[in-house]
Amino acid sequence: MFDAICIPSGAKHAEALMSNGRAIHWIREAFGHCKAIGAIGPGVAVVLHALGLPEVQVTSALDSDDIVSSYGVVTTGKYDATSAITDALEIAPGKKGFASNFAYEISKHRCYDREWTS
Length: 118
What we know:
The chain is an alpha/beta fold. Helix content is 38%, strand content 14%. A four-stranded mixed sheet has the order 1-2-4-3, sandwiched between helices. Helix 2 crosses helix 3. The termini are far apart.
């Protein structure tokens, strides 16, 4: 098991991953082990497909570089050269900076917020 997984952007790649049972299982396993998960652009749909949990919020605008971080799942609509330049590479949560937010979730080693109690 790895400490994190990231599903990059790319519509064809996302489509291929969604139809790959092993990839879907891998994402579910990472989530179940409280590991950080990142997704960019069409990769966000792969995470939604794999998890199917309404409690986990993800970005809804694929043309925006705003960050949504929910239960250790960090998503953004786009991450291009401009986004990378403005990303301060500060390991901290916030509205901007996919790499910063993702690195923050990885630094926690596990996201224990996922262990819901009834």
